[in-house]
Amino acid sequence: MQVRLLIPDSGTKPMFSDEELQFLLSEHGDNPKLAAAEALDIVAGDPQRLASWSRGGVSATRSSADDLRRRARQLREQVHGSVRVGAIVRTDFWE
Q1: 12: exposed, middle or buried (C-beta count within 10 Å: 0-12, 13-18, 19+)?
Q2: Which of 3, 32, 65, 73 could form a disulfide with 44 if both were Cys (CB 3.0 to 4.6 A apart)?
Q3: Could you give the CA distance from residue 54 to residue 47 in angstroms, rounded to a whole number?
C-alpha cells in the first residue's frame, strides 16, 4: 500500500491497520499522499503512538512531532501546491 511507504509503516508491527489506512484513503479521495499526511498528523498528535514510533531505519520521539507535522505539510503541498503570501505593489492603482 502506497500510504505505508510514505509514512513509513511497513515493519513487522505496523502502526496502522489496513482498515485504518483504507479509511484515510477514502476520506481523502483515494490520494495516498493526503492519507499519509493525515496518518503522520495522527502520529504527531498521539503521545502514545509517537513515543513508540519506529519503522525500519526511521524512528521518532516526542520531540520530533514538529518534524512529522512538517512532513505532513510537505505531502499536502505536493498535492495542492503551496500558498505564497506577499504584496503586489501597483503604482497605477489609484490613477
Answers
A1: exposed
A2: 65
A3: 13
Is residue 95 a part of any domain in this protein?
Answer: no
* Within a domain: 60: yes
Q: What is this structure's pTM?
A: 0.63
Ranges of H-type helices in the chain = 2-6, 18-27, 32-45, 47-51, 65-80
* Per-residue pLDDT tens over the stretch 1-19: 788 888 877 777 888 899 9
Report pLDDT digits (tens) over 38-49: 998 888 887 666
Residue 94 lies in a domain: no
